[in-house]
Amino acid sequence: MEKFEKLQGIAAPMPLVNIDTDMIIPKVFLKSIARTGFGKNLFDEMRYNRDGTEIEDFVLNKPQYRNAEILIAGDNFGCGSSREHAPWAIADFGIKCVVSTSFADIFFNNCFKNGILPIVLPQEQVDVLMADAEKGANARMTVDLEAQEITTSDGETIAFEVDAFKKHCLLEGLDDIGLTMEKKASIDAFEAKASAARPWV
Question: pTM for the whole thing?
Fold first, then answer.
């Protein structure tokens, strides 16, 4: 998993509330367990007409937000079913940070396991970031995980909280497999000891 340390990028405003995982990646696309290839179908029903053409006024179809790496979202983001394909689609599109007033628990935890930083802030601070994001591609935000701060394009700094263990995992680029591999020496030593004690196994 790629390390997340400091991100400076375009933030896309998406003030809709209750964006569920079926809106993030519709169930019709859940045909693979690979983590890649889902970005093109992120928010599919909001991004495309039935004939496959783009809906021009959808935020991620607008030229200034096509390369957005930060999403400023409405309340209760990622609710609905627990599909891990939702953070896969977000990450595959290129979004590395989502800010909201609240997230569904399973989606929230899945984000950390897939290199995405979900940030929970009070409504008034989300409103500040939403207004900044609405300025377009020239309004780049900085998300500093080590310092736990978001800096707007105008230089305003907003602090955020993050679980220390989840922060460590993102900073070091550790998913569940990576965490296990950190203990490789201990695992190898245990296996060698067990093999010596029970050579017939």
Answer: 0.86
Place of tokens 């203990």: 183
Q: Tell me: the pLDDT tens digits for 49-68?
A: 999 999 999 999 999 999 99
- Cα distances from 46 to residues 52, 59, 73, 114, in angstroms, run 11, 9, 15, 23
- Rounded CA-CA distance 113/166 in Å is 9
Instruction: Phi first, then psi: give them for residue 108, nearest 5 degrees.
Output: -55, -50
Cα distances (Å, whole numbers) of residue 20 to 60, 86, 92, 187: 17, 9, 18, 39
Query: DSSP letters along 84-151, please?
Result: THHHHHHHHHT--EEEES-B-HHHHHHHHHTT-EEEE--HHHHHHHHHHHTT-TT-EEEEETTTTEEE
151 contacts 157 by C-beta, under 8 angstroms: yes
Q: Whose CA is closest to 43, among 65, 64, 34?
A: 65
61-93: b (≥16 Cβ within 10 Å) or e: beeebeebbbbbbbbbbbbbeebbbbbbbbbbb
Contact between 140 and 6 (Cβ < 8 Å):
no
